[in-house]
Here is the input.
Amino acid sequence: MKSGLPRVPGVKVRMNEELSVHTSFHIGGRARYFLEVYSKRALVRVLKVIANEKLPYYVIGCGTNVLVADSGLPGAVLRLGGAFKRMNRHGNVFRCGAGVAIENFLDEAVRVGSRGAEFLAGIPGTLGGAVKGNAGAFGRSIADLIDRVFLMDEQGAETVRTRNEIAFTYRSSDIGNGYIITGVSMRLRKGTSRAIRQSIERNLAARQKRQPDGYSAGSFFKNPPGRAAGELIEICGLKGASVGDAEVSRKHGNYIINKGHARAVDVLALAEMIRKTVRMQTGIELEAEVRLLR
Ligand SMILES: Cc1cc2nc3c(=O)[nH]c(=O)nc-3n(C[C@H](O)[C@H](O)[C@H](O)COP(=O)(O)OP(=O)(O)OC[C@H]3O[C@@H](n4cnc5c(N)ncnc54)[C@H](O)[C@@H]3O)c2cc1C
Here is the structure.
């Protein structure tokens, strides 16, 4: 049966799209349909076709916190562009589309002199991905800033949840896979552009010192309570350990680096080896922060 997806207005459709180019790991097979969705109206139409044709679907932002299976993804991969990249502001409250890059949001905060989000500097990806995984750094997370999250369910119905109606925990939220985050509003405070820029630069410099170069999805494991996953991996002697082209960074134990031709199975085998070794040597169970899409 021919899919109706290529005919949905307001959507750019690519067939059999290589997903490795859409992830920071540079790993992953092909998506049957890769859809860049430009508006809420187009998103509603896409979801209708997906439901009618009973297609599995996935939402990605910049693909900086995912590992895509080597066999690729059946069905449709959705990415929010166009109107989802817009930002509005009333005073220090920012209403942003889920497709806005964190970096662009911070540039705007600097430009208008709104402070409080500088800890996000250097975290790649979109606000949608950041909200879903409660991204953060330096002991803070995006949940600290959130006022409301705008969602669309699989039937295309829109809902709004206030910060208190969402359970945000460390690198996680209870926003289920049946919801697409379409936007977020965040409350910042009045500051001066110069001081905000300086604070961002300090944070970027601190990250630069510990963040390895190369293809990765950032920290692979969540930090267990009271411990740093990278330190546990290091004391277990795992820095530099590898499976195929997937290697535990020598600079930061919690980064798995794709040296060029790593496959998802290599990353998963290495992650399993890390988990087992850390469990055996320390009794601590590591949990992946990176989400496997398959
Ligand atoms: C070098 C490097 C450094 C990093 N440092 C940090 C850090 O310091 N702190 C930190 O928290 N993270 C860090 N990360 C991880 C990553 O950048 C963040 O988690 C980021 O918020 C993910 O955004 P994304 O748009 O790339 O999401 P993706 O990786 O595309 O998606 C992540 C998850 O969110 C879901 N998702 C994405 N958009 C939506 C949407 N609109 N609606 C519903 N679900 C959605 C996806 O389905 C997936 O489950 C780092 C990554 C890299 C590569």
Remarks:
- DSSP finds six helices and 20 strands in the chain.
- The first strand starts at residue 11 and ends at 18.
- The mean pLDDT is 97.
- The longest helix spans residues 264-282.
